[in-house]
Amino acid sequence: MDGSRKLTVSELTDQIRATLENAFGPVIVEGELSNCRPSSTGHLYFTLKDSGAAISAVMFKNQLRNLGFEPRDGMLLRVHGHISVYAQRGSYQIICEEMEEAGAGDILALLEKRKRALAAEGLFDEDRKKPIPRFPRVVGVVSSPTGAALRDILNILARRAGGIGVVVLPAPVQGTEAAAIIARRIEQANQWKLADVLIVGRGGGSLEDLLPFSEEAVVRAIAASKIPVVSAVGHEIDWALSDFAADLRAPTPSAAAELVSANRAEILEQVKRAGEILRETMDARLDRARLLIKPFGIEDLEYRFRGILQPRLVRFDDAKEALLENLSERISDMRRRLELARVNIEAANPRAILERGFSVVLREKTGKVLRHAGETKSGERLIIRPLEGIITATTETVEVPVLEDT
Hints:
Strand order of the largest sheet: 1-2-3-5-4
Distance between the termini: 173 Å
Low-confidence stretches: none
Number of strands: 13
Number of helices: 11
Radius of gyration: 53 Å
Mean pLDDT: 88
Largest sheet: 5 strands, mixed, barrel
Order of helices and strands: HEEEHEEHEHEHEHEHEHHHHEEE
Helix content: 40-55%
């Protein structure tokens, strides 16, 4: 090629493309799928990378139809194609004609390993999930202050629930420092009780872009949060470990805003409809009641009420009289029994016997009561106890009655 010849950009690019395509021909490249971007025309644009390099790639929709799987970020793929140049951007890329899975990529394998470890600690358990408040007063949003995701969330909250409060906790959503700052924002929201529910997320991106939301610091902060957390990372097909730790996973940031905000118009319509149903129900019951009492005048109603009430009053009076009579009889009977017991007790009192003139004779030596003359003998000293005082005596004679045989 003549180095003095002046070329247009298109001419130079055409020469580079021809050189590359002739030099390489068909190639088979193995690498990790990243930044997967389906286009509206049905083509799939993505990046193949390994630890040292990356290359752009595209697979057109005619070849995509033959795939038996859905390509996703993190997959390790083996593609068949040829090298070409995308002139509009001045970049080279692989035009893929076939694609097959070659295993899990490094990032995907790392995330799966981390996911298993955190799950084993119980951070993803369903019984840890907290309910999302239906009518939160304040929604906290942990996201980039300049991101489209935050704008979408604020727009939807303003449209659906204008009176709701919003606290934005700014944090970078990608890069090496993002995870630590996101985790700190979640902890600060809890420390100062800034919101009734938190949305933690960002817009779409490659698997690498979403990695901060799969870092342990963020996952642990979400799992430890006392405030319910909605994870809203990327688009519906994207995922991060924060989705598993959160109390609710939203497919997009916009969907997260809808999940935490009841639609004001819908609520007003529900209240209005409930009021109408209540009014219709009460009207129907009043109409039925009017229909039932219509045949009866006031005097007739009073007569009917008396017919119901009076027999019950008579029964009540009869029961009252019977109860009082029974109680009176019981009291009289108990008084009689009490008097009889008193008389018996008095009759058994030893003092009453002594009052009638009797005395008790005891043997001085043993102190035992003398019941029979034969129990003493002449000369024994006795003690006599009349009603009052003590008499000491000496036995002179003893006469014991002789019992005749019968």
